[in-house]
Amino acid sequence: MVSVLNEADPKQALADALTLPVSGALSNDWELSPRASVLSSIAKATVKSEPAVARSALAELLKLGDKTTRFTQVQLIGDVPNIYLELGDQQGTRDAVRDLLKLADGLHARDTNSDDPNLAFKWRWPSTAMWRRCVQAAAQVAPDFAQTVIAEITDPEIATFEKVYYANSLVGVEQPSMTPMDIVNKQGMGGTGSE
User: Which one of 15, 58, 83, 101 has the fewest beta carbons within 10 angstroms of its own beta carbon?
Assistant: First the structure.
């Protein structure tokens, strides 16, 4: 078993984490990846004490990308830029946001799949939540980077949501710390989570 809190040997904890399965037993959109969960925990636990281990965990987390559930992508992988910010790594943050923009595009393709579209309100789609995480992290790097990220959002309605969200943050409107996500298929089946 991986001991994430093994402060005596975080490198071994990282090596152990890489042996965990990417997918869990349930294989549904709301399940968190065991490997991604532990990598995220390692990255957060080692930001101050072992920044090199944190960076390695973040790199491995980004590699998981679209191999994980939508919830894992938004909840855990979507947090990577924020951890880079904690490391004081502006370039790492920028690079991670770029990687997440690709994931957001993939999430959007699933949300808009004509065979099984996400019927939830668009503000609550996983792709919207991922783009929001990108805008939030980019805004902490530089305002022009946030504007660039918003300009790259391929869905005009979601881009408008994110512009309003970003503008509200600039004028000091308190933003919710968690955004609910819904996935509802044609049969009305799905679930709700929050990031």
Answer: 15
